[in-house]
Amino acid sequence: MDVKNATVFITGANRGLGLAFAREARRRGATKVYAGMRNTKGFEEPGIVPVQIDVTDSASIAAAAKLAADTNVLVNNAGIAALIDGPLAADIELQSARMLDTNYYGVVRVTKAFEPILVTRPNAAIINVLSDIVWLPRPYLTPYAVSKAAAWSYTNQLRFHLQEQGVQVLGLHVGFVDTDLTNGIDVPKASADDVVRQTYDALAAGKSEIMADKGTVLLKNTLAAETPGYITPPAGL
């Protein structure tokens, strides 16, 4: 479906990729754009409505869904990341719990709250922001990778579950994006604006997945190989 004339709700939209989603939806002619964020103070973007939401707090999610009851495109973008010493680090359990609470359970909570709204719309969609980290071994991002792998699996189950109710579910797979979240990580990064444009184009084309940068495309293409990218990453990644 096209976001033109749609009402779009985006979590984690105060900056970075989420804000890029909000601005591009507005540029494409969305009727209304809700920018979900934990703290709305000081947020000022023409034509974009800030909404308080904490994806780890069910009460704030319910309040946001009630306020934005005209939503027909939900973008689950909110996420956190942290660097650790590896999969056997002393803080692996603590950091994994943090990542799962936001990056996986947050998606579940928000989707559950908005699903009764979306299924009543003649055209509705959910975009889940995922990551190529599910196919790329990076020990210093183990908790983040685990949480995104859970979100990917959930997205696949959700798509199958909602297809008969006419809700399009699109999984956005991408590597590092040039936002505040990736500050301090010295790797090639995709442009947030380019990722968002590709994602909305894929949504309009009726696609179920989008690989939004060259590295992610390369990784996905290795999955059926005898030695896939999650065992031996391709050169340059």
Short description:
By secondary structure, the chain is of the alpha/beta class. It has helices at 16-27, 58-67, 92-118, 142-162, 192-204, 214-221; strands at 7-10, 32-37, 48-52, 73-76, 124-129, 167-173, 209-211.
Topology, number of strands = 7
The CATH architecture can be named as 3-Layer(aba) Sandwich
**How would you sum up the global shape?**
globular
Low-confidence stretches: none
Give the spatial strand order of the biggest sheet: 3-2-1-4-5-6-7
Instruction: Supply the number of structural domains.
Output: 1
The span between the termini is 33 Å
Query: Could you describe the largest sheet, including whether it forms a barrel?
Result: 7 strands, parallel
Mean pLDDT: 95
Range of helix content: 25-40%
What's the level 1 CATH class?
Answer: Alpha Beta
SS field, number of helical segments: 6
Written overview of the protein:
With 237 residues, the chain is α/β, with parallel strands linked by helices. It has a single domain (7-221), classed as Rossmann fold (3-Layer(aba) Sandwich), CATH 3.40.50. Helices cover 38% and strands 15% of the residues. The protein has six helices and seven strands. It has a seven-stranded parallel β-sheet, with helices on both faces. Strand 4, helix 3 and strand 5 (124-129) form a beta-alpha-beta unit. The longest helix has 27 residues, at 92-118. The protein starts with 6 loop residues before the first strand and ends in a 16-residue tail after the last helix. The mean pLDDT is 95. It comes from Paraburkholderia rhizosphaerae. Belongs to the short-chain dehydrogenases/reductases (SDR) family. Keywords: Oxidoreductase. This is Short-subunit dehydrogenase. One of its GO terms (molecular function) is oxidoreductase activity.
